[in-house]
Amino acid sequence: MNRRLSAALVATTALLASSGVASAHVKYVTPGSDPVAVVEFLLSALSDPFNLAVLALGGVSIAVGGLLYLRFRPARRDITLLRSLLTDYQDLLPWLLRLSVGLPLVGAGFAGYFFSPAVEPAAPTFVRLFGISTGFLVLFGFGTRFVATVGLLSYLVGFVLNPALMLAFEFVPGFIALALVGGGRPSADQVIARMADDERTIYSRIDPFYRTVAKPFAERVQPYEALVPIVLRVGLGISFIYLGVAQKLMNPGESLAVVAKYNLTAVVPVGPELWVIGAGLTETLVGVMFIVGLFTRAFSGVAFLLFTTTLFGLPDDPVLAHISLFGLVSALLVTGAGAFSVDEWLHAMDDDPNTPGIVRGGITSEDSR
Prior knowledge:
transmembrane; membrane; DoxX; cell membrane
């Protein structure tokens, strides 16, 4: 029994560390598979005591680890400094968002698919032009808010026509965030704005757009820029939950085919069904934590590691299909959870001198000062 529990603990650690390889978009790399009954698959997998032990140990370890951190708050100064250092990159957030959205759009255009490799139209000429032109305009930062709005509307229309675009849902928060923050710097928008804002330049006298449209619109949306962290974490949370539940737990046939194709059971010696369930639950957990805004930066780091493993772990996976998720998760490292999150509530509790020490991790107000 002790040996079995030890093996379960080792497998849990290895599975959580390596589940990113199986967490790729299975639609992109699956070699094809026979349909598998979901209920039968889950009942069969969860009837194995070893699988249950691994999953239970994983869940308990995460829960206990989170509670212990909230109780004792180790490395408090280090975490505060790290949070401050990451926040200092806020001025580069628009550039990071533009890279996250523009690069995969350009790649989709050259490859001939519409947002997701799972959506390849029969006549891809328009799709190629759309992806390349939109992507380059976003990367260049020219008319960023307008281009982002066009991109968002195009995605939504495409989603109505082909729900498979749910695989690329991360473009929704990406476009919305860009529409709110604009091009930032460095960008063509910033250069044009500086030129048009200086009344001594010839350009400022001939530009018909900046003062009448661009500047008023920027002033109108500026109060809503604070919503960007919420947009990112909720949008990414929905994406992760969809990938974990719909693409893994509710679609075990294709996920099992991916495990077999890459011989992932040789990486971590557990059954293929545990690979699928472990990857699905990991992605679902990350999505839920994003939506509620708990340990947002920590789980952004977890997601970052998952994508890094995926990018380098699957030789024929379309890397460009993951850049949007990869970049937007990186943006959450900068922004943190933002408003309406558990993290914000915890930070407020930390800063409140009247908060009891047990709630504040056993550190009193005087200690924290």
